[in-house]
Amino acid sequence: MNYLLEHGFRVLGQRISIAEFAGQVFALAVVFLAQRRTLWTWPVQVGATVLLFAVYASAHLGGLAARQVAILAISVYGWWAWTRRKDPVFGVVVRQGRLTERLVMLGTFVAGTTVMALVLDALHASWAPWPDAAIFVGTLVAFGAQGAGLVEFWLVWLVVDAIGVPLQISSGLYFSAAIYIVFAGLVVHGWWTWNRSAKQRVAARDHGVMAASS
After folding, report:
1. Which are the contacts of 148, defined by CB distance < 8 A and separation ≥ 6?
2. pTM higher than the cut 0.85
3. Is 60 left (phi over 0), alpha (psi -120 to 50) or beta?
4. In Å, how far are 17, 52, 207 from 1, measured between CA atoms?
């Protein structure tokens, strides 16, 4: 891993390590695969997690590094959940979250960010504890909701992107910042795709119920 961190190339005068490049490309591929609801989303995410853990640890971003460990655990859950949540017509089943689920996601994000930021600050594990913590917790909320097949996970990713871009730039990780911007475009498209699939499945289910009752 040291070789991947110490070697790389320059783009517009900015150094990009092989680990950062490969990790962010893998992460970008995860968003692309998630749009299509393929099980390959999760093993590719594992590869991105290992590489980005090394990148963020070397940049002294404790929150971003620690979240890779949590993402690895959630990826195992997501892989298992998507395997069980298959529909012969619609593939991996996705749906819009209920009000209580949305409130739980919001509450977890706010409370989790506060606690994590205080921990990072107390341990001197990050020079930017609040945005670092928000990205850490937001990522966990997003991946948890993604594993559960909730459309709203894409909206959480938009929040993470909005916080992540300036933090990456301030950390000198310019390539990662550029990838976050690309993420935003893919996230919007992903939300539209999942939302459409969820509505189609509800319409098909309602049509089936009506046909059975007639």
Report:
1. 81
2. no
3. left
4. 11, 11, 54
